[in-house]
Design a protein that fits this description.
disordered C terminus, elongated, about 120 residues, mainly alpha, 4 helices
């Protein structure tokens, strides 16, 4: 790995960010977006649809952690990414189970646009 790839500063110029640093920034931004989406959904009514949306967001988060795992070279980051990925997958399973429980208890919930009187799928 040369100095440009590591993002080291040369005596004649500024620090040039490495490709790895750019990927880290993108993945960090994606994780922030997912966290904000998850928090927004969790502030809404707790029903089968919102539980399924939270599960989906956790599945996306697990994929982002998987990407970080694949691109990292440091063992500590590798372990952290694996742990975070496993946690996100476990949360997704838990929210999927909760969505299924809501559906069993309250029946299938339709989007508001289809809940008009007389409408049948």
């Amino acid at each position: 790995m040369n100095t440009l790839e590591r993002g080291a500063a040369s005596a004649s110029g500024p620090t040039i960010p490495s490709a790895s640093a750019a990927v880290d920034d993108v993945l960090d931004h994606l994780l922030e977006q997912l966290q904000r989406r998850r928090e927004r959904v969790q502030r809404t009514a707790c029903d089968a649809n919102s539980a399924a949306r939270v599960a989906e967001i956790y599945e996306h988060e697990a994929r982002v952690w998987s990407l970080w795992f694949e691109q990292t070279e440091r063992r500590l980051q590798w372990r952290a990414a694996l742990s975070a990925q496993a946690y996100a997958r476990a949360c997704a399973r838990s929210w999927r189970t909760q969505a299924a429980a809501y559906r069993r208890r309250f029946g299938r919930l339709e989007p508001l646009s289809t809940q008009r009187a007389g409408w049948r799928p």
